Amino acid sequence: MYKVVIFGGGGFIGSSVADQLLNSGYSVRIFERPGVPVYRHFQEYELMEWITGDFNNNADIDRAIKGADLVCHLVSTTVPGTSAVNVTYDIQTNLIPSVHLLNAMQKEGIGRLLFISSGGAVYGHPKYLPIDELHQTDPIVSYGITKLNVEKYIQMFEHLYGITGIILRVSNPYGARQRPESGQGVISTFLHRALKNEALEIWGDGNVVRDYLYIDDVAAAFEKAVCYSGTERIFNIGSGQGKSLNEIISTLEVLLGQTLKKNYKGSRPYDVPVNILDTSRATRELGWSPTVSLSDGMKRTILAMTNSL
Length: 309
Description:
Blueprint: E1 3-7, H1 12-23, E2 27-32, E3 48-52, H2 58-64, E4 70-73, H3 80-85, H4 87-108, E5 112-118, H5 142-161, E6 164-170, E7 172-174, H6 186-195, E8 200-203, E9 209-210, E10 212-214, H7 215-226, E11 234-237, E12 243-244, H8 245-256, E13 262-265, H9 280-286, H10 294-308
Parallel strand pairs: 1-2, 1-4, 2-3, 4-5, 5-6, 6-11, 7-10, 8-13
Antiparallel strand pairs: 9-12
Helix pairs in contact: 1-7, 4-5, 6-8, 6-10
């Protein structure tokens, strides 16, 4: 039985990837921090193992990958904003453990890794739109620099040791189980504040454009990448469409049937004005394309969040 270890498998993206793989019959081992609750009840027939540890502890990483066929690396201790506050912490808790993970995989003889990178932060200011995988990488915040450095080490380990590293540069995922207090995920953050009748906090004038992708489509892309045998290594995973913050707010107002309170604040230096991904390589090579429209995805997110309150 093909065993996949998911570092960060109990989080927003990781839990959806785990469910997708379990539904397809894979054996899944989730590695999470102590104290992270199991996100749902697992059936006896599901080939599921949940272990805890510290991603910064080499022994915990070594223990987690024993017997694995593939490793899925979804751990990040920072988001763009927090990474800029403490760059050293970003490097120490993301880059260095990722390199140890690669070392441990090489010693254990595990030859396949999936890594979640950033479809926005690694590119920086776009030179053209939509952004394809050949676009220059010029990140302007530590989060993107660290993600890009992990990518480079993955490529180095493939060159030196034959570890196949598939890198998924994911755009702006949203949907059920996303924590609005995490600092990432504007749709979930806006929705949470709206349901609590609080003002939405908007950085800048609301014209920043992003590429939003529903979480089920993200999970489907990871499943496609698990069994990919082609020669490409980097894939943009996004909707291919851009929406401004103001457009997101307008859609929420229509779906909720109310006018939302808004608080516009100063712009942030690490926010590029627009990011839209070209996902044609993923469609061609992985046979993947998004299936959930923004409107339908937002409706599902509203339902999930409303039921959880």
